UniProtKB/TrEMBL annotation:
One of its GO terms (molecular function) is ATP binding. One of its GO terms (cellular component) is membrane. Gene3D superfamilies: 1.20.5.1930, Histidine kinase-like ATPase, C-terminal domain (3.30.565.10). Pfam families: HisKA_3, Sensor. The chain crosses the membrane at residues 9-26, 32-58, 119-145, 165-185. It comes from the Bacteria. Residues 226-293 form the Signal transduction histidine kinase subgroup 3 dimerisation and phosphoacceptor domain. Keywords: ATP-binding, Kinase, Membrane, Nucleotide-binding, Phosphoprotein, Transferase, Transmembrane, Transmembrane helix, Two-component regulatory system. This is histidine kinase. Its EC number is 2.7.13.3. Residues 18-197 form the Putative sensor domain. It catalyses: ATP + protein L-histidine = ADP + protein N-phospho-L-histidine. It comes from Mangrovihabitans endophyticus. The lineage of its organism: Bacteria, Bacillati, Actinomycetota, Actinomycetes, Micromonosporales.
Protein backbone atom coordinates (compact mmCIF):
# COMPACT_ATOMS: atom_id res chain seq x y z
CA UNK A 1 0.00 0.00 0.00
CA UNK A 2 1.44 3.40 -0.97
CA UNK A 3 2.17 5.97 1.75
CA UNK A 4 -0.52 8.37 0.53
CA UNK A 5 -3.14 5.63 0.38
CA UNK A 6 -2.07 4.37 3.80
CA UNK A 7 -2.43 7.86 5.27
CA UNK A 8 -5.87 8.29 3.68
CA UNK A 9 -6.94 4.90 5.00
CA UNK A 10 -5.73 5.74 8.50
CA UNK A 11 -7.32 9.18 8.55
CA UNK A 12 -10.64 7.69 7.43
CA UNK A 13 -10.42 5.15 10.24
CA UNK A 14 -9.78 7.91 12.78
CA UNK A 15 -12.74 9.95 11.50
CA UNK A 16 -15.02 6.92 11.59
CA UNK A 17 -13.72 6.17 15.08
CA UNK A 18 -14.67 9.71 16.06
CA UNK A 19 -18.13 9.09 14.59
CA UNK A 20 -18.43 5.83 16.53
CA UNK A 21 -18.36 7.71 19.85
CA UNK A 22 -21.65 9.64 19.43
CA UNK A 23 -23.20 6.65 17.66
CA UNK A 24 -22.30 4.49 20.66
CA UNK A 25 -23.83 7.05 23.00
CA UNK A 26 -26.99 7.01 20.82
CA UNK A 27 -27.41 3.29 21.54
CA UNK A 28 -28.21 3.97 25.19
CA UNK A 29 -31.38 6.10 24.73
CA UNK A 30 -32.53 3.65 22.04
CA UNK A 31 -32.23 0.81 24.56
CA UNK A 32 -34.15 2.79 27.17
CA UNK A 33 -36.87 3.68 24.65
CA UNK A 34 -37.26 0.04 23.65
CA UNK A 35 -37.62 -1.11 27.26
CA UNK A 36 -40.19 1.61 27.94
CA UNK A 37 -42.13 0.70 24.77
CA UNK A 38 -42.05 -2.96 25.76
CA UNK A 39 -43.45 -2.16 29.21
CA UNK A 40 -46.18 -0.03 27.63
CA UNK A 41 -47.08 -2.77 25.16
CA UNK A 42 -50.34 -3.74 26.93
CA UNK A 43 -51.49 -0.10 27.02
CA UNK A 44 -54.05 0.40 24.19
CA UNK A 45 -53.14 2.87 21.41
CA UNK A 46 -49.73 3.54 23.01
CA UNK A 47 -47.53 0.47 23.36
CA UNK A 48 -48.06 -1.11 19.93
CA UNK A 49 -47.33 1.96 17.76
CA UNK A 50 -44.55 3.14 20.09
CA UNK A 51 -42.77 -0.22 19.87
CA UNK A 52 -42.94 -0.15 16.10
CA UNK A 53 -41.52 3.37 15.90
CA UNK A 54 -38.69 2.47 18.29
CA UNK A 55 -37.90 -0.68 16.30
CA UNK A 56 -37.66 1.35 13.10
CA UNK A 57 -35.04 3.52 14.84
CA UNK A 58 -33.19 0.50 16.27
CA UNK A 59 -33.07 -1.24 12.87
CA UNK A 60 -31.91 1.96 11.19
CA UNK A 61 -29.09 2.20 13.75
CA UNK A 62 -28.19 -1.48 13.21
CA UNK A 63 -28.23 -1.03 9.42
CA UNK A 64 -25.89 1.94 9.77
CA UNK A 65 -23.51 -0.24 11.77
CA UNK A 66 -23.67 -2.89 9.05
CA UNK A 67 -22.78 -0.32 6.39
CA UNK A 68 -19.87 0.95 8.49
CA UNK A 69 -18.66 -2.63 9.01
CA UNK A 70 -18.70 -3.21 5.25
CA UNK A 71 -16.10 -0.45 4.90
CA UNK A 72 -13.65 -2.70 6.75
CA UNK A 73 -14.41 -5.81 4.68
CA UNK A 74 -16.74 -7.24 7.33
CA UNK A 75 -20.00 -7.82 5.43
CA UNK A 76 -23.07 -8.26 7.62
CA UNK A 77 -26.24 -9.46 5.90
CA UNK A 78 -29.58 -8.01 7.02
CA UNK A 79 -31.24 -10.87 8.94
CA UNK A 80 -34.82 -9.64 9.13
CA UNK A 81 -37.69 -11.87 8.08
CA UNK A 82 -40.00 -10.40 5.41
CA UNK A 83 -43.16 -8.78 6.72
CA UNK A 84 -46.27 -10.95 6.43
CA UNK A 85 -49.14 -9.99 4.17
CA UNK A 86 -51.41 -7.43 5.78
CA UNK A 87 -48.85 -6.27 8.36
CA UNK A 88 -49.65 -2.56 8.11
CA UNK A 89 -47.66 0.00 10.15
CA UNK A 90 -49.21 0.50 13.55
CA UNK A 91 -51.18 -2.73 13.36
CA UNK A 92 -51.18 -5.65 15.76
CA UNK A 93 -49.98 -8.10 13.09
CA UNK A 94 -46.86 -6.03 12.41
CA UNK A 95 -46.25 -5.70 16.15
CA UNK A 96 -46.31 -9.48 16.60
CA UNK A 97 -44.05 -9.95 13.55
CA UNK A 98 -41.45 -7.56 14.97
CA UNK A 99 -41.37 -9.17 18.41
CA UNK A 100 -41.37 -12.72 16.98
CA UNK A 101 -38.36 -12.05 14.76
CA UNK A 102 -35.15 -13.25 16.53
CA UNK A 103 -33.21 -10.52 14.71
CA UNK A 104 -35.17 -7.93 16.75
CA UNK A 105 -33.83 -9.26 20.01
CA UNK A 106 -30.30 -9.62 18.63
CA UNK A 107 -30.37 -5.95 17.63
CA UNK A 108 -31.56 -4.97 21.10
CA UNK A 109 -28.96 -7.24 22.74
CA UNK A 110 -26.25 -5.47 20.72
CA UNK A 111 -27.19 -1.92 21.80
CA UNK A 112 -25.37 -1.89 25.15
CA UNK A 113 -22.22 -3.90 24.25
CA UNK A 114 -22.17 -2.15 20.87
CA UNK A 115 -22.18 1.22 22.64
CA UNK A 116 -19.28 0.16 24.86
CA UNK A 117 -17.20 -1.27 22.00
CA UNK A 118 -17.90 1.70 19.73
CA UNK A 119 -16.89 4.22 22.39
CA UNK A 120 -13.81 2.26 23.51
CA UNK A 121 -12.44 1.61 20.01
CA UNK A 122 -13.35 5.14 18.93
CA UNK A 123 -11.51 6.69 21.88
CA UNK A 124 -8.48 4.47 21.26
CA UNK A 125 -8.39 5.37 17.55
CA UNK A 126 -8.72 9.07 18.28
CA UNK A 127 -6.61 9.13 21.43
CA UNK A 128 -3.46 7.64 19.93
CA UNK A 129 -3.46 10.08 17.03
CA UNK A 130 -4.34 13.04 19.24
CA UNK A 131 -1.47 12.20 21.59
CA UNK A 132 0.92 11.97 18.64
CA UNK A 133 -0.26 15.34 17.26
CA UNK A 134 0.20 16.89 20.71
CA UNK A 135 3.80 15.69 20.76
CA UNK A 136 4.47 17.10 17.28
CA UNK A 137 3.14 20.58 18.07
CA UNK A 138 4.91 20.75 21.45
CA UNK A 139 8.20 22.10 19.98
CA UNK A 140 6.71 25.03 18.02
CA UNK A 141 4.52 25.74 21.06
CA UNK A 142 7.54 25.98 23.34
CA UNK A 143 9.38 28.20 20.83
CA UNK A 144 6.35 30.46 20.35
CA UNK A 145 5.84 30.91 24.08
CA UNK A 146 9.56 31.47 24.68
CA UNK A 147 9.75 34.15 21.97
CA UNK A 148 6.60 35.82 23.23
CA UNK A 149 7.72 36.12 26.83
CA UNK A 150 11.31 37.06 25.99
CA UNK A 151 10.31 40.67 25.30
CA UNK A 152 8.99 40.99 28.85
CA UNK A 153 12.30 39.97 30.40
CA UNK A 154 11.17 36.45 31.16
CA UNK A 155 13.56 33.81 29.80
CA UNK A 156 12.14 30.44 28.87
CA UNK A 157 14.15 27.56 30.35
CA UNK A 158 16.42 25.87 27.87
CA UNK A 159 15.42 22.41 29.06
CA UNK A 160 11.80 23.13 27.91
CA UNK A 161 13.03 23.64 24.35
CA UNK A 162 14.96 20.40 24.72
CA UNK A 163 11.80 18.62 25.78
CA UNK A 164 10.09 20.00 22.68
CA UNK A 165 12.90 18.71 20.47
CA UNK A 166 12.57 15.24 21.99
CA UNK A 167 8.78 15.24 21.80
CA UNK A 168 8.70 15.84 18.04
CA UNK A 169 10.05 12.44 16.90
CA UNK A 170 8.11 10.71 19.66
CA UNK A 171 4.89 12.41 18.57
CA UNK A 172 5.51 11.55 14.90
CA UNK A 173 6.10 7.91 15.84
CA UNK A 174 2.97 7.75 17.99
CA UNK A 175 0.90 9.44 15.26
CA UNK A 176 2.13 6.93 12.67
CA UNK A 177 1.33 4.07 15.06
CA UNK A 178 -2.12 5.52 15.68
CA UNK A 179 -2.86 5.83 11.95
CA UNK A 180 -1.69 2.25 11.46
CA UNK A 181 -3.72 0.90 14.38
CA UNK A 182 -6.96 2.83 13.71
CA UNK A 183 -8.15 0.63 10.79
CA UNK A 184 -7.47 -2.50 12.83
CA UNK A 185 -9.37 -1.10 15.80
CA UNK A 186 -12.36 -0.32 13.59
CA UNK A 187 -12.09 -3.79 12.06
CA UNK A 188 -12.25 -5.33 15.55
CA UNK A 189 -15.30 -3.19 16.32
CA UNK A 190 -16.97 -4.41 13.11
CA UNK A 191 -16.17 -8.04 13.92
CA UNK A 192 -17.68 -7.58 17.37
CA UNK A 193 -20.84 -6.07 15.87
CA UNK A 194 -21.17 -9.01 13.50
CA UNK A 195 -21.48 -11.38 16.47
CA UNK A 196 -24.86 -9.77 17.20
CA UNK A 197 -26.06 -8.23 13.94
CA UNK A 198 -25.34 -11.05 11.48
CA UNK A 199 -28.10 -13.58 10.78
CA UNK A 200 -28.13 -16.86 12.66
CA UNK A 201 -27.89 -20.16 10.81
CA UNK A 202 -31.68 -20.48 10.79
CA UNK A 203 -32.05 -16.90 9.55
CA UNK A 204 -29.49 -17.53 6.80
CA UNK A 205 -31.46 -20.57 5.65
CA UNK A 206 -34.69 -18.54 5.70
CA UNK A 207 -33.10 -15.73 3.69
CA UNK A 208 -31.66 -18.27 1.27
CA UNK A 209 -35.10 -19.82 0.74
CA UNK A 210 -36.56 -16.38 0.11
CA UNK A 211 -33.78 -15.55 -2.35
CA UNK A 212 -34.24 -18.85 -4.19
CA UNK A 213 -37.98 -18.25 -4.39
CA UNK A 214 -37.40 -14.85 -5.97
CA UNK A 215 -34.75 -16.09 -8.41
CA UNK A 216 -36.94 -19.05 -9.38
CA UNK A 217 -39.80 -16.69 -10.14
CA UNK A 218 -37.44 -14.49 -12.17
CA UNK A 219 -36.16 -17.55 -14.03
CA UNK A 220 -39.70 -18.67 -14.84
CA UNK A 221 -40.58 -15.16 -16.04
CA UNK A 222 -37.41 -14.99 -18.15
CA UNK A 223 -38.13 -18.38 -19.71
CA UNK A 224 -41.72 -17.36 -20.45
CA UNK A 225 -40.54 -14.12 -22.05
CA UNK A 226 -37.99 -16.07 -24.11
CA UNK A 227 -40.67 -18.48 -25.33
CA UNK A 228 -42.92 -15.56 -26.27
CA UNK A 229 -40.05 -13.99 -28.20
CA UNK A 230 -39.38 -17.22 -30.08
CA UNK A 231 -43.07 -17.66 -30.89
CA UNK A 232 -43.30 -14.06 -32.10
CA UNK A 233 -40.19 -14.38 -34.25
CA UNK A 234 -41.44 -17.63 -35.75
CA UNK A 235 -44.88 -16.20 -36.43
CA UNK A 236 -43.70 -12.91 -37.88
CA UNK A 237 -40.65 -14.27 -39.69
CA UNK A 238 -40.10 -17.83 -40.80
CA UNK A 239 -43.76 -18.84 -40.65
CA UNK A 240 -44.84 -15.92 -42.83
CA UNK A 241 -42.04 -16.72 -45.30
CA UNK A 242 -43.10 -20.37 -45.49
CA UNK A 243 -46.74 -19.42 -46.07
CA UNK A 244 -45.63 -17.07 -48.84
CA UNK A 245 -43.47 -19.87 -50.26
CA UNK A 246 -46.44 -22.27 -50.36
CA UNK A 247 -48.67 -19.68 -52.07
CA UNK A 248 -46.02 -18.93 -54.71
CA UNK A 249 -45.57 -22.63 -55.52
CA UNK A 250 -49.35 -23.10 -55.74
CA UNK A 251 -49.70 -20.19 -58.17
CA UNK A 252 -46.80 -21.54 -60.21
CA UNK A 253 -48.55 -24.90 -60.53
CA UNK A 254 -51.68 -23.18 -61.87
CA UNK A 255 -49.94 -21.10 -64.55
CA UNK A 256 -47.06 -23.38 -65.52
CA UNK A 257 -48.85 -24.70 -68.65
CA UNK A 258 -50.37 -21.51 -70.05
CA UNK A 259 -47.66 -19.03 -68.89
CA UNK A 260 -44.27 -20.71 -68.26
CA UNK A 261 -42.50 -17.33 -67.88
CA UNK A 262 -44.82 -16.30 -65.03
CA UNK A 263 -44.35 -19.73 -63.45
CA UNK A 264 -40.57 -19.34 -63.54
CA UNK A 265 -40.89 -15.90 -61.95
CA UNK A 266 -43.08 -17.32 -59.17
CA UNK A 267 -40.62 -20.14 -58.56
CA UNK A 268 -37.76 -17.64 -58.36
CA UNK A 269 -39.71 -15.70 -55.73
CA UNK A 270 -40.37 -18.97 -53.89
CA UNK A 271 -36.63 -19.77 -53.90
CA UNK A 272 -35.86 -16.31 -52.55
CA UNK A 273 -38.49 -16.72 -49.82
CA UNK A 274 -37.02 -20.09 -48.81
CA UNK A 275 -33.53 -18.57 -48.59
CA UNK A 276 -34.80 -15.72 -46.45
CA UNK A 277 -36.72 -18.15 -44.22
CA UNK A 278 -33.56 -20.22 -43.70
CA UNK A 279 -31.58 -17.10 -42.75
CA UNK A 280 -34.26 -16.07 -40.26
CA UNK A 281 -34.32 -19.57 -38.77
CA UNK A 282 -30.53 -19.49 -38.39
CA UNK A 283 -30.75 -16.14 -36.59
CA UNK A 284 -33.50 -17.52 -34.36
CA UNK A 285 -31.46 -20.61 -33.47
CA UNK A 286 -28.43 -18.41 -32.88
CA UNK A 287 -30.50 -16.34 -30.45
CA UNK A 288 -31.50 -19.45 -28.49
CA UNK A 289 -27.99 -20.91 -28.23
CA UNK A 290 -25.32 -19.64 -30.63
CA UNK A 291 -23.49 -22.46 -32.44
CA UNK A 292 -20.19 -20.66 -31.89
CA UNK A 293 -20.82 -20.89 -28.13
CA UNK A 294 -21.31 -24.64 -28.36
CA UNK A 295 -18.28 -25.09 -30.60
CA UNK A 296 -15.72 -22.65 -29.18
CA UNK A 297 -16.96 -21.91 -25.67
CA UNK A 298 -17.41 -18.59 -23.94
CA UNK A 299 -13.99 -17.29 -24.98
CA UNK A 300 -14.52 -17.86 -28.70
CA UNK A 301 -18.15 -16.75 -28.65
CA UNK A 302 -17.34 -13.42 -27.01
CA UNK A 303 -14.50 -12.84 -29.47
CA UNK A 304 -16.85 -13.56 -32.39
CA UNK A 305 -19.38 -11.18 -30.86
CA UNK A 306 -16.75 -8.45 -30.53
CA UNK A 307 -15.84 -8.73 -34.22
CA UNK A 308 -19.31 -7.56 -35.25
CA UNK A 309 -19.50 -4.55 -32.95
CA UNK A 310 -19.26 -1.01 -34.37
CA UNK A 311 -16.92 -0.05 -31.50
CA UNK A 312 -13.38 -1.56 -31.37
CA UNK A 313 -13.52 -4.06 -28.51
CA UNK A 314 -10.58 -5.77 -26.82
CA UNK A 315 -11.16 -9.23 -25.37
CA UNK A 316 -8.74 -10.42 -22.68
CA UNK A 317 -9.58 -13.96 -21.61
CA UNK A 318 -7.78 -16.31 -19.25
CA UNK A 319 -10.24 -19.20 -18.91
CA UNK A 320 -8.50 -22.52 -18.41
CA UNK A 321 -11.52 -24.58 -19.40
CA UNK A 322 -15.26 -24.43 -20.01
CA UNK A 323 -18.14 -23.91 -17.64
CA UNK A 324 -21.40 -25.82 -17.72
CA UNK A 325 -23.63 -25.05 -20.70
CA UNK A 326 -26.30 -23.06 -18.78
CA UNK A 327 -23.63 -20.94 -17.08
CA UNK A 328 -21.82 -20.29 -20.36
CA UNK A 329 -25.08 -19.32 -22.01
CA UNK A 330 -26.04 -16.95 -19.19
CA UNK A 331 -22.58 -15.34 -19.21
CA UNK A 332 -22.59 -14.98 -22.99
CA UNK A 333 -26.00 -13.32 -23.19
CA UNK A 334 -25.13 -11.07 -20.23
CA UNK A 335 -21.99 -9.91 -22.06
CA UNK A 336 -23.99 -9.50 -25.27
CA UNK A 337 -26.58 -7.34 -23.48
CA UNK A 338 -23.89 -5.20 -21.84
CA UNK A 339 -22.09 -4.67 -25.17
CA UNK A 340 -25.38 -3.90 -26.92
CA UNK A 341 -26.15 -1.23 -24.31
CA UNK A 342 -22.66 0.17 -24.83
CA UNK A 343 -23.11 0.34 -28.61
CA UNK A 344 -26.51 2.02 -28.39
CA UNK A 345 -26.11 4.49 -25.55
CA UNK A 346 -22.53 5.15 -24.45
CA UNK A 347 -20.98 6.99 -27.42
CA UNK A 348 -17.76 5.10 -26.65
CA UNK A 349 -14.72 5.00 -28.89
CA UNK A 350 -13.41 1.74 -27.47
CA UNK A 351 -14.57 -1.06 -25.19
CA UNK A 352 -13.04 -4.03 -23.44
CA UNK A 353 -14.03 -7.40 -22.03
CA UNK A 354 -11.94 -9.18 -19.38
CA UNK A 355 -12.79 -12.75 -18.36
CA UNK A 356 -11.14 -14.55 -15.44
CA UNK A 357 -11.81 -17.62 -13.31
CA UNK A 358 -10.36 -17.97 -9.83
CA UNK A 359 -11.43 -19.60 -6.56
CA UNK A 360 -14.52 -21.10 -8.15
CA UNK A 361 -15.78 -17.74 -9.43
CA UNK A 362 -16.19 -16.65 -13.04
CA UNK A 363 -15.62 -12.90 -13.31
CA UNK A 364 -16.45 -10.95 -16.47
CA UNK A 365 -15.77 -7.22 -16.71
CA UNK A 366 -17.25 -5.20 -19.58
CA UNK A 367 -16.12 -1.58 -19.83
CA UNK A 368 -16.11 1.36 -22.22
CA UNK A 369 -14.79 4.93 -22.36
CA UNK A 370 -18.17 6.47 -23.15
CA UNK A 371 -20.13 9.24 -21.50
CA UNK A 372 -21.18 7.17 -18.47
CA UNK A 373 -24.32 7.80 -16.45
CA UNK A 374 -25.77 4.30 -16.93
CA UNK A 375 -28.63 3.59 -14.52
CA UNK A 376 -30.39 0.20 -14.10
CA UNK A 377 -33.58 2.01 -13.08
CA UNK A 378 -33.89 3.74 -16.46
CA UNK A 379 -33.97 0.65 -18.65
CA UNK A 380 -34.57 -3.08 -18.71
CA UNK A 381 -31.22 -4.19 -20.13
CA UNK A 382 -29.14 -3.98 -16.95
CA UNK A 383 -31.99 -5.29 -14.82
CA UNK A 384 -32.27 -8.22 -17.23
CA UNK A 385 -28.57 -8.97 -16.72
CA UNK A 386 -29.08 -8.95 -12.96
CA UNK A 387 -32.02 -11.35 -13.17
CA UNK A 388 -30.19 -13.64 -15.60
CA UNK A 389 -27.15 -13.91 -13.30
CA UNK A 390 -29.21 -14.25 -10.11
CA UNK A 391 -30.54 -17.61 -11.33
CA UNK A 392 -26.98 -18.95 -10.91
CA UNK A 393 -26.26 -17.02 -7.66
CA UNK A 394 -24.42 -14.45 -9.74
CA UNK A 395 -24.17 -10.72 -9.15
CA UNK A 396 -23.70 -7.60 -11.25
CA UNK A 397 -21.93 -4.45 -10.09
CA UNK A 398 -22.17 -1.22 -12.08
CA UNK A 399 -19.80 1.74 -11.96
CA UNK A 400 -20.81 4.51 -14.36
CA UNK A 401 -20.05 8.05 -13.19
CA UNK A 402 -20.94 11.01 -15.38
CA UNK A 403 -18.23 11.36 -18.00
CA UNK A 404 -17.32 7.67 -17.81
CA UNK A 405 -15.93 5.16 -17.86
CA UNK A 406 -18.71 2.60 -17.49
CA UNK A 407 -17.62 -0.72 -15.98
CA UNK A 408 -20.00 -3.65 -15.53
CA UNK A 409 -18.62 -6.45 -13.33
CA UNK A 410 -20.43 -9.80 -13.45
CA UNK A 411 -19.61 -12.72 -11.16
CA UNK A 412 -20.98 -16.26 -11.14
CA UNK A 413 -19.82 -19.23 -9.05
CA UNK A 414 -18.93 -22.15 -11.30
CA UNK A 415 -16.34 -24.81 -12.00
CA UNK A 416 -14.38 -25.19 -15.23
CA UNK A 417 -13.69 -28.43 -17.05
CA UNK A 418 -11.55 -29.46 -20.03
CA UNK A 419 -8.52 -27.33 -19.18
CA UNK A 420 -6.71 -25.74 -22.09
CA UNK A 421 -2.98 -25.95 -22.64
CA UNK A 422 -2.53 -22.20 -22.64
CA UNK A 423 -4.68 -19.15 -22.02
CA UNK A 424 -5.37 -16.72 -24.82
CA UNK A 425 -5.59 -13.01 -25.04
CA UNK A 426 -6.14 -10.72 -27.96
CA UNK A 427 -8.26 -8.18 -29.75
CA UNK A 428 -11.65 -8.87 -31.19
Amino acid sequence: METREWLRYGVRAVLLGLLAIPLGVLNLPLLVLFLVALLLGPVPLVGVPMTQVVMVLVRARADLERRLAARWNVPITRPYAPAPTGAVPGGWKRYRWLLADPATWRDVAWLLPGAISGIVFGVLSLGLCAYGVQGIILLPLWLYLGTGWYGYGIYWPLHSVGEGLLSFPQGALILAAGLFAAPWLQWLNARFARLFLAPTRAAELRLRVTELTVTRADSVDAQAAELRRIERDLHDGAQARLVSLGMAIGLAEEVVERDPAAARKLLAEARESSTTALVELRHLVRGIHPPVLAERGLDGAVRALALHLPVPTTVDSDLAGRAETPVESAAYFAVAEALANMSRHSGARRAWVVMRHAAGMLTVVVGDDGRGGADPDRGTGLRGITRRLAVFDGTMTLSSPRGGPTVVTMEMPCALSSPKTSPSSGTG
